[in-house]
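Entry 0007
Protein: Pentatricopeptide repeat-containing protein
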Amino acid sequence: MELFHQMRTCGPAPNDVTFIAILSACAHAGLVREGREVLTFMKQHYKIVPRVEHHAIWTAMLGACKMHKNYDLG
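Output (structure tokens):
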């Protein structure tokens, strides 16, 4: 996440592949709220339309929340 914040301030601009990596990192670390923020930021700030890969990672994160009965996050 620190590298993502550096990219936002110093460049280069993240692209759709960058966001796949960031969302994947959030998923592996259990950072659901951060993943939601990244997905929203990607769409609103960079105008990047989520692809199947983005949705697959997001769906996996929400599924993990349901599986672990963490309904507040997912």
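Curator remark: The chain has one domain: 2-67. The CA atoms of residues 52 and 58 lie 10 Å apart.
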